[in-house]
Write a structure and sequence with these properties.
Helix content: 25-40%
Radius of gyration: 19 Å
Order of helices and strands: EHEHEHHEHHEEEHHEEEEHEEEEE
Strand content: 25-35%
Distance between the termini: 29 Å
Largest sheet: 10 strands, mixed
Shape: elongated
Number of helices: 9
């Protein structure tokens, strides 16, 4: 093992999509790192495949602290890469984040705020580690191959997956979270609003038209507001197809953190669930659409599998 890498940070900088001056953004971070006396190596990635390649490189080169400068999608790529290595190797690595993405929900959960660079770096420097859970979807792809994908924040099936994708696209154009929420919500009227799903959750079987299902390892962009990534459980919100007036009420409750008060939302807390059928429903992981699984798929929790750096 390279002794020099034990205290050195390996930083992967993922420029925000649409950012006009990514170099200047990095220079701000770099000045703060030097001010705080942080020893680091930085590499830049602009794609999902690049993140996975660079995380693998850092693991193979014995970096013990890997910091993602990016959003939910970059973190998702990082943890999926880390889950490919042996547990004894992964247990020696701490993962941290400096939020810099189109969607930063998981960082926000812990109190890391985009733009507060000095505060975020100071918190990471304390090196306070929390063992966190991941959600996992196991499915077959169109080639009949068995696959799995992990998530930090949430997995969405149905309308919320499509809306999250629209929010990514509109925020890329408009820049601000609330400004991206408004057009993406309006664009919902052009989306399919319900999907026939058959879901087994504990002793319950849901077999009906459902608007969306959110499985949250954390807050799930407001859909699972009580979810936490350290209790060995996943929060689930099953949303039936409301009338238009109830849909408007639902948006208000969602963005005021009270979505579970809506009469068309059915909450659960589970370790494992099975989607026996979710015909043509889009599936999103941590805000990014994935190729829709073919046939049935299972979602479960993996308890205390990642060392995550959190504020004091």
């Amino acid at each position: 093992m390279d002794e020099d890498k034990q205290g050195k940070w390996g930083i992967i900088y993922c420029p925000k999509s649409g950012c006009l001056h990514p170099k200047k953004r990095w220079e701000r971070i770099e000045r703060c790192l030097k001010k705080k006396g942080i020893d680091y190596d930085m590499v830049m990635s602009e794609s999902s495949a690049g993140v996975e390649r660079l995380v693998t490189m850092m693991i193979n080169n014995d970096y013990r602290t890997i910091i993602m400068v990016g959003g939910d999608s970059a973190l998702n790529d990082a943890v999926n890469c880390m889950m490919l290595v042996e547990k004894k190797v992964r247990d020696k690595i701490a993962l941290g984040v400096i939020p810099n993405g189109l969607m930063n929900d998981f960082a926000k959960f812990w109190g890391f705020k985009e733009g507060y660079i000095e505060q975020n770096i100071e918190a990471l420097k304390l090196h306070r580690i929390r063992k966190i859970d991941l959600g996992c979807i196991r499915y077959e792809n169109s080639k009949g191959e068995r696959c799995k994908r992990y998530f930090l924040n949430c997995l969405n099936v149905g309308l919320a997956a499509a809306v999250a994708n629209l929010r990514r696209k509109t925020r890329n154009i408009l820049g601000l979270p609330m400004l991206s929420f408004i057009p993406s919500s309006l664009l919902m009227i052009f989306q399919r609003l319900d999907y026939h799903m058959k879901i087994k959750i504990d002793t319950d079987t849901i077999d009906k038209k459902v608007m969306t299902v959110c499985v949250g390892n954390a807050t799930g962009y407001g859909m699972t507001p009580n979810g936490v990534p350290y209790n060995g459980l996943l929060d689930v919100s099953v949303v039936s197809h409301p009338e238009m007036t109830q849909l408007i009420e639902g948006f208000y409750l969602l963005y005021s953190g009270k979505i579970l008060n809506h009469k068309d939302v059915r909450p659960y807390r589970i370790r494992e669930m099975l989607f026996e059928k979710a015909h043509k429903a889009p599936v999103g992981i941590d805000g990014r659409l994935m190729n829709t699984p073919v046939g049935a798929f299972k979602v479960q929790v993996e308890q205390e599998v990642i060392n995550f750096l959190i504020p004091n």
